[in-house]
Amino acid sequence: SKTKGGNSYSFYDPKLQTLLEKQIELETDIVRAIACGEFCAYFQPKISALGGVVGAEALIRWHHPSKGVIPPCEFISIAEQYGLIQQLQNIVLRDICFLINELSAENMIDEFFNVSINISQCQFNSSTLKTELLNTINDFDIRSSQIKLEITESMLSGDIDNTIQQMEELKEKGFIFSIDDFGTGYSSLAHLSAFPVKELKIDKSFIDKVLDDGSGFSIVQMIIGLAKSLNISVVAEGVEGLEQFEILKTMHIDSIQGYLIAKPMITHDYLAWHKHNRAL
Ligand code: C2E
Ligand code: CA
Ligand code: CA
Ligand code: CA
After folding, report:
1. Residue 251 CA to ligand 2 centre (angstroms)
2. Which GO terms describe its molecular function (predicted)?
3. ipTM associated with this complex
4. pLDDT single digits (tens) 226-267
5. Model pTM?
6. Cα–Cα distance between 120 and 113 in angstroms, integer?
């Protein structure tokens, strides 16, 4: 519009124009990068408090020819806005299946080992999620129980009936659900028992404060207590120090993920790491 004054935007607002141009530029670059095979999954191990590698989380990376490795925070939301997230998810899912097959072939995992994939809201809402997942695992001859779907706590607070139905359908096919960033969404605490959830991951912001005198310890303790009462296993994310791990063990955490154990690694490096550390 050409509206003058007030707070209204003009289409020709130069700032908005630049922002839009930047977004389109990024979107075009993502499309190119998909075609060139520049995206891949990295893997970060999850270890049990009792010992042993119990799983891994797939985290997407973009190996840009001139910009180096680009983290997901710089492109995921644009990919979502421009309808490209499904293609990125398929790349991640194929990398996951490849990894699981490699680990199986070398007898490096038991039947309980699973790999997590992050599912964003728009993917979760998509009617094709189930068939996309099933088609890919069938191609690779992977069991659905080897795939864990991470959805964020905030995704539980929308249309609850719809969310439960979508989750139940995927659960019926054998997929396992984990609730990511737990503790940051508030609203769903009371409803947690209504969802078919196997695991919850305590957000790093609380794990960072678990050694402090303040509320950090109590919040983590409360979340672990709640999860235990619902028979849900608890993961601490972003564990960076040994003291953190020690205190979390005394609080009966089930498993941990974080730089203390390992940073996310490209498939080849993860395989080597897993081989040497699976008894960790
Ligand atoms: P998230 O799912 O909460 O993943 C955890 C993030 O914390 C990852 O960042 C991981 O690399 C980082 N991290 C793990 N341990 C530590 C630690 O000890 N210290 C610190 N400082 N960080 C740690 P990353 O890989 O940059 O991913 C950021 C977010 O992007 C993820 O948060 C997730 O929401 C999203 N994401 C990543 N991969 C995918 C994907 O394939 N699909 C979708 N939809 N989202 C993804
Ligand atoms: Ca996650
Ligand atoms: Ca998280
Ligand atoms: Ca997150």
Report:
1. 22
2. catalytic activity
3. 0.98
4. 999 999 999 999 999 999 999 999 999 999 999 999 999 999
5. 0.94
6. 23
